[in-house]
Every structure is written in structure tokens, then in C-alpha cells.
Amino acid sequence: MRTPDRREVLRAALAGGAALAIPAALKAQEAGFALPKLPYAFDALEPHIDAATMEIHWGRHHKAYVDNLNKALAGKDDWLKKPITAILKSINDVPATIRQAVINNGGGHHNHTLFWESMAPKAGGEPAGPLAKAIDSAFGSFAKFQEKLTAAGLTRFGSGWAWLVADDQGKLDVISTANQDSPLMMTPALTPLVGVDVWEHAYYLKYQNKRVDYLAAWFKTVDWKVVAERHAKAGK
Ligand code: MN
After folding, report:
1. To which H or E segment does residue 26 belong?
2. Any domain includes 14
3. In-domain check, residue 141
4. How far is the CA of 205 from the centre of ligand 1 (A)?
């Protein structure tokens, strides 16, 4: 038996297993997608988002989307080499037998990556600059936009997301998507600028059935500078 490399040893240790015979399906992940590091500590968004929710949401839910995306695409190197955004934009070209798995897990991977990056400690407030102007022009005011996004999150029955999106002309809208569907999968594709996860796993530990309280708290975590950078790139 060859000597396992460092990643294999680490992976086996994390899995709690002594055996270092790594299954082929796991080795394929090295060419695939990886769980991105959280840009802050689990408790950094307290009191708005609690540390236990962050730890489980990132370490188990997001990790499962990444693992299952890699499983769905195992052996399909052409697809594994593409950025996740390119896969989602051409979702109808993904082989039919694995398409739903890629929608669920590829959507889940990208949606959560955007979600973590859109939040920050000591954030919230309102955007400035061109994004603020675009929000005023599309919705009337930031307060009206906030009402619209909150309503989209509240009326999403079951699991899904509420989004601020831009079309290919840079025009803004608020939409919601079911499950892990991404705005990038729509025809034509919409660019997600910021989204809020309204799956119960995103808030139930702290907020139970009070999704409206979670949505209000989430607004206090939004890093509008990140959203403004996405807006500046949209439609280009
Ligand atoms: Mn989630």
C-alpha cells in the first residue's frame, strides 16, 4: 500500500476512521468543489444569527451540498472543471440523469457561498452609491425594497430563498426561488446580488417559526459593500 498523502490522512482523521483506504468516489473530490472557509467566526454574527446555527448550517448543510455535487459529477471531468456559475447558467445542458442533483446541490453550494460572503459582523444599515440609487429607482426607497424582500421571504412556502437580482441590463428586481434553485438557472439568467436563506435550518434553532424576526435580524448582517461590488459587475 502506498503512503497516504497529508490530505488523505487529514480526511481520514476528520471522518474518525483509522482506515486510510480512501474510496474512489472521495478521491474524485480533489478535482471537484470544496467547502469555502467561512470569512468570520461562527459567533461573529451574534446576536442576529447564533453560533450553533452557523456551525451546523455551514459545516453540515453546506458541506453536504458540496459533497453531493461532487458525487453527482464524479467522473464527468468536463463539468467538474467549470465554475459553479457556468454550470448553473447552462443547467439544461447537464445530463438529464444528474440534472436534478446538480440543481439541488450545485444551487445549494453557490447560494450558500453567496450567503456567507454577503454577511459580516457590524454590518447592516443601507447601501450607498450606485446601488443605493438603483434600489431607489427600482423600488422607490430602501425601506420599500426591504418590505418587498421580506414579503418574498415570508411568502415562499416551504423552503427556498428571497433574492435581490439584476438582469443583463443591470435592472433590479426581487424574486424568490424554491428549494436550492438559483436565479442563474432562469432563462434568461438573473444575477443574484444578495439572497436570504429561508429554509428552516437557517433560523429554527433561534427563531423557531418566527421567520419574520429572522428576516429582520438578517438585514442587520448584510454587508452592502459586497452587494454593491456584485451590482457593479452585473450586466457587464
Ligand atoms: Mn441553507
Report:
1. helix 24-27
2. no
3. yes
4. 13
